[in-house]
């Protein structure tokens, strides 16, 4: 970097294109090194939503991929197009990386807009600022994967770029429209749409009738953008299921097919003021379940928080007219800072999930560069920006960019060996796993029905309108009804198919079905050879060994419910109902379906995503924990339940923190 660079004219289209190509090539190389991402959510709902992006299956399936089944599938269309293109998995990964590289291009454009407000000598600080944002650890962990957040973030960053441009008010309307469109693609982007709308309202001055008209026009543009992306899907959901954003906000829309509950995404939201203040610093840690399920340590949230606080204190100290006149020129375009603050606050309040905030974490790069330029002399600021970049890269490298399920590159993204009968003949398939295995749907006969009876966030109850729909769909193929479940033995064991079928039959007892263990067929997943080729072989050698999995498909037969299981289920349900009455905020919504395997019964309460309660009839204990915790807490014993219940303080286990270091066995964790 030279001083002459600061005085150069804005990059030409050719230079910008070349810079983007460099970023795209780097992203493609990283994607190939990271491997094929066979993440939990891909097997649960990504592949299903991609498959249904070309045509819905609401008339045939019911919660096929859990509650995520009803997201807008439009955002998954690029992944589906790549799957149908005939490319192998490496080619599909390259295609996803190229789509995701549009974020880098837009971040460059945002940095160029920010540079306009800087003194010429400070503009080069945005080079390390751009690199910090473009290599954000949370972004890299999603790069080239099937998560759609890096795709949806393109629309968010485009809206921010238009927000920062000042040529004409129509660009602000376009920014609002794009923000609404991003929210329609993925509802978690509503946080960014709200932040952008607030920014337009605050920063458009003077206030008056013209301000009111322009603010209303921006709001209308945002609504139109949302409807362009979502109206078609919302109309289908409303017609078929009685709620245009089913199952969200069902307390307002009251679809009879789901609990009257509005839904929360609070898995990572700090629950106490001290946790909120510590949150940016906890993100520095090399631990999972802090702001995303995998480890993605990032120093920028803490650094930007400290620098922003220091900048604010300096501003307050210099707020007299005389001191303001002596202060350095502002390196902070107002719209950028208002949007960044509003986006951070809305994100913290609505989810605190890093996956939903990729644009925010990318924008922290240029934000850091602006702050060091404001607080330090130019040379010190340049050193600070470069040191931060080196530390961030070293931190990312030492922690490792975690994939949810890195696999070697194979011909298909999900190699599936499905017996011919399930491809050629329609049937009704009932999934009994928290992970729905809904990726099987694209391989089944197209007229088949797929139902996830017991999902990670929701179980279909055994009474009411939802159960009636379950029974109606099951009767579409009464002679060809099947259970679907994965092989999930305890470490060091491999139970027989009959043993697993008997255990799963206990889950089906409440709906009057039983598994015929003699009819089970095996579906092999990821049982494919790695791709040939010298370059791919080099990449594959450094990836984890191939992990094949087995899924069982077994015929279902009608069977009367067991009176013994019913009595045990009712006894466990009564205990958990008393907990709901004692702590209505913690165990909410009340009355979820009780599931279990005879001696262990549990309920999943979704308000805190999720609080799980288990009743163990053998050792007569009642336990609870949160999803993502490795420690189970005992609430009390059945022999002294009234006394133990009275002393229970209704607090979240481990103060709501996930990823607790202690390890418990799968047996202790209950029948998950």
Automatic annotation (TrEMBL):
The keyword Lipoprotein does not apply. Keywords: Membrane, Transmembrane, Transmembrane helix. The chain crosses the membrane at residues 92-114, 126-148, 168-199, 211-233, 299-316, 336-356. This is Glycosyltransferase RgtA/B/C/D-like domain-containing protein. The lineage of its organism: Bacteria, Pseudomonadati, Pseudomonadota, Gammaproteobacteria, Lysobacterales.
